[in-house]
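Appendix B. Chain record.
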Amino acid sequence: MARSSRTRRNRRSDDYQAPASAQRAREQQRQAPIRQTQPAKSQTGAQRERGGGARGFIGESWAELKKVEWPGRRQLFSATIVVIIAIAVVGTYLAIADFAFSRLVRDVLLRF
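Structure tokens predicted for this chain:
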């Protein structure tokens, strides 16, 4: 399907776009303040009670911790091994870099 080419002369009036400042002012006039019609609901759909404080926070935290899928013994062991290997690699890299830079500073920069 071929697109029709439009020139300035045959552009329709509904294609006209108002300048940004005028358009922004019109949008601000149109917007009505948003009013909350119902009290906020929790994730389960139950209506939330206002407040709750530390006791409510601890209760909700405990409920969330019950939902967590904790790792098994095998997964925990393999993750621990991965962390120990990563620490050994990074520690070795830092030890080599420290040795190299300390020699550089001692032999080159402190000579003068």
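Further analysis of this model is presented in Appendix C.
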